[in-house]
Amino acid sequence: xxxxxxxxxxxxxxxxxxxxxxxxxxxxxxxxxxxxxxxxxxxxxxxxxxxxxxxxxxxxxxxxxxxxxxxxxxxxxxxxxxxxxxxxxxxxxxxxxxxxxxxxxxxxxxxxxxxxxxxxxxxxxxxxxxxxxxxxxxxxxxxxxxxxxxxxxxxxxxxxxxxxxxxxxxxxxxxxxxxxxxxxxxxxxxxxxxxxxxxxxxxxxxxxxxxxxxxxxxxxxxxxxxxxxxxxxxxxxxxxxxxxxxxx
Length: 248
Ligand code: GLN
Description:
By secondary structure, the chain is of the alpha/beta class. The protein has helices spanning about 20-35, 65-75, 80-90, 100-105, 195-200, 200-215, 225-245, and strands at about 5-10, 40-45, 60, 90-95, 105-110, 115, 125-140, 145-155, 165-170, 180, 180-185, 185-190. The mean pLDDT is about 95. The structure holds glutamine. Glutamine binds near residues 63, 69 and 152.
């Protein structure tokens, strides 16, 4: 087991990298290395000819502006079948905000529609205002998850399972109280922040699933000292959720 290693593909870091989404890649990598597990990170930019998901364990897609999403979308559609098969076969995909929207069927803007990959049976429509601010979720997978959202799109997830219930903030849309989607090993969310350094439990949930898919006999991850990370997470919960409930 000492030879364990994961291959992480960062898709379009040149265009999809709002609010330090790249930090999620660093967090995945560091939490593997701290446990003596190897991490190979491949960046696939719009300049590259293409990419292959052979031997890939984790695909990461960050957030981007509508303009950047349009550029990325045509490149992504060339790989629709490969990405879909990867997700259906239990490959891990983490998609944040603009990346999340592109996993769905479409993102409808005022005067045009961006076609998505259709990996998730969801769709997004541009709203009249932007939903911006800190956000706190209660999740089954990783307890309380904190982050920051900034999106014009409202995402409707139909029968899909959300990542969490919104305790503070907006989430997928203004009304459902739900945030994100979990489908097989696909985790899609509006949470920037970046997401994983602030939520180490979620990072380890993702790493455990990816490692177990590749090494079915692995026994689980060793514990790390997450006291600093947990403090950052608790600070946000106390500042927004507890303060809010004290007011009422
Ligand atoms: N452009 C998309 C929206 O505004 C996604 C933004 C983002 O990734 N932060 O909804």
